[in-house]
UniProtKB/TrEMBL annotation:
Molecular function per GO: copper ion binding; nitrite reductase (NO-forming) activity
Region entry Disordered, spans: 29-65
Keywords: Copper, Metal-binding, Oxidoreductase, Repeat
Family annotation (NCBIfam families): Cu_nitrite_red
Protein's recorded name: Copper-containing nitrite reductase
Source organism (scientific name): Halorubrum salipaludis
Annotated binding of Cu cation, by residue: H143, H148, H183, C184, H192, M197, H342
Length: 374
C-alpha cells in the first residue's frame, strides 16, 4: 500500500488537495484556490483541525497488524446471472486488528474478514444461504451477526452469538429483495460497529438489476476515540464520546480520506461509464447526507429499495444508520467527483471523503472551464 508521509494535519490537507475551501468550492461554485490557501482560509489560519495542545495525551501509535483496513470499493461480487434458486455457502471470520485511521493514528478495529466494511454478500431473491460465523480463539470479544435481510430472531444474531474459539451456522432464505446492512449486534454493539463490524448483503430481485458499467461499494461509519482528529498516537474507543454521539472521525471504509491522492488513491473511472454505488451507513448513530460534488444521483434507490421505481436527479439524500442506499451516476465530464456527507464539518475535519477520478476528454458542450479562451 502506498501512503504519503504524515507530518501534520495541515500538510495532509494540502497534499490531498481537499482543503476546506476546496471542498466547499465544489458546492458553492467558487473557484478552487490552491489547497494551502484553502485549508488556512477555512480554519482561520489554525492547523486545520490539528489536535490542540490541551488534548489528552495518547499512548504512542501502536504496531499495526495490517497495512490497510479499508475495503477496496471495486471489490463487488458479480451480478446475478442465474434464474433458478441457488444455495450459497458463506463463511466470515471475526478479526480484531490494529490499523491506521490515518498516518500516525492507530486504532483497534473489529472486523468481518479483516476489512471495513465487511465483504458484500450477493444473492438472488429466493436463494438459500448457509452462513457460518467463526470467532478465533485469540479474539478478545464475543461476536454475532444481524442480517437485515433475514426473517428470524435478531436477523440471525440470537443463534450466531459466539465466544472466542467458537463458530455457528445458520441457514436462511433470502425472501425479500433489496440491499441491506449486516452488523454485529452483541449488547455493546455501538462499540463493535464503531470499530468496523458492519457490511452489506444485496438480494437482487428475481429479474435482476439494470446493467451498468461499474459498481462500487462504500461504508460510512463513525469512530469514537479518546483523541482528537489528526492527533498522532494510539486512539482507544471512548464510550462517553459514543454516548454523546460526538465522533472523532467519520470515514468511508474505516480510514480518514481513504480514497484521495494522499490516502489509497482516487478511484479511476472511464468517462461515459454508468456507475452504481452502494453506500452502507453502519452508524452506529449518525445519518449521512450523501452527496456527489460535481454530479447528481441520476437514479436513486432510497433505503435499499430495488423494487420501486428509482428517484431521479436527486442532489443529496439521507442515509440513516443501519441502511444501505444504492445510486447510479453518469460520468460525461472528466475530473474529480467527490463523494461526501454534506454535513460538511465531517468532510473538512473528520475524514469522510472519497474521490472518483473520471478520465477522458473535455466536452465543452457540457462544461467549459475557459469559455473566453484566455
Amino acid at each position: 500500500m502506498t501512503r504519503h508521509s504524515h507530518t501534520n494535519r495541515r500538510a495532509f490537507l494540502k497534499t490531498a488537495g481537499i482543503g476546506a475551501a476546496a471542498a466547499f468550492a465544489g458546492c458553492t461554485g467558487g473557484r478552487q484556490t490552491d489547497a494551502a490557501t484553502a485549508s488556512s482560509d477555512e480554519t482561520g489560519g489554525d492547523e486545520s483541525g490539528e489536535a490542540s495542545a490541551e488534548a489528552t495525551s495518547l499512548d504512542p501509535a501502536a504496531d499495526v497488524d495490517v497495512d490497510r483496513i479499508a475495503a477496496d470499493p471495486t471489490d463487488v461480487p458479480d451480478p446475478v446471472d442465474w434464474d433458478e434458486p441457488r444455495t450459497h455457502e458463506v463463511t466470515m471470520e471475526t478479526t480484531e486488528v490494529t490499523a491506521e485511521i490515518e498516518p500516525g493514528v492507530t486504532f483497534d478495529y473489529m472486523t468481518f474478514d479483516g476489512q471495513v466494511p465487511g465483504p458484500m454478500v450477493r444473492v438472488r431473491r429466493g436463494d438459500t444461504v448457509n452462513f457460518t460465523l467463526k470467532n478465533p480463539e485469540d479474539s478478545g470479544m464475543p461476536h454475532n451477526m444481524d442480517f437485515h435481510a433475514v426473517y428470524g430472531p435478531g436477523g440471525g444474531a440470537d443463534h450466531t452469538t459466539i465466544a472466542p474459539g467458537e463458530e455457528a451456522t445458520i441457514q436462511y432464505k433470502a425472501t425479500y429483495p433489496g440491499v441491506h446492512i449486516y452488523h454485529c449486534a452483541v449488547p455493546n454493539m455501538d462499540h463493535h460497529i464503531s470499530a468496523g463490524m458492519f457490511g452489506s448483503i444485496l438480494v437482487e430481485p428475481k429479474d435482476g438489476l439494470p446493467e451498468v458499467d461499474r459498481e462500487l461499494y462504500f461504508g460510512q461509519h463513525e469512530i469514537y476515540t479518546n483523541g482528537e482528529p489528526g492527533e498522532e498516537g494510539h486512539h482507544e474507543f471512548d464510550l462517553d464520546a459514543a454516548k454523546a454521539e460526538n465522533p472523532t472521525y467519520v470515514t468511508y471504509n474505516g480510514e480518514a480520506y481513504a480514497f484521495t491522492e494522499s490516502g489509497n488513491g482516487r478511484i479511476p473511472i472511464d468517462q461515459g461509464d454508468r456507475v452504481r454505488i452502494f453506500m452502507s451507513n453502519g452508524g452506529p448513530n449518525l445519518s449521512s447526507s450523501w452527496h456527489a460534488i460535481g454530479n447528481v444521483w441520476d437514479k436513486l434507490y432510497r433505503d435499499g429499495d430495488l423494487v420501486s421505481d428509482p428517484a431521479r436527479y436527486v442532489e443529496t439524500t439521507p442515509v440513516a444508520p443501519g441502511t444501505v442506499t444504492a445510486a447510479e451516476i453518469e460520468t460525461p465530464v472528466p475530473g474529480p467527483i467527490k463523494l461526501v456527507d454534506h454535513s460538511l464539518s465531517r468532510v473538512v475535519r473528520k475524514g469522510v471523503l472519497g474521490v472518483l477520478d473520471v478520465q477522458g476528454e473535455e466536452d465543452t458542450d457540457i462544461f467549459d472551464s475557459n469559455p473566453d479562451g484566455e
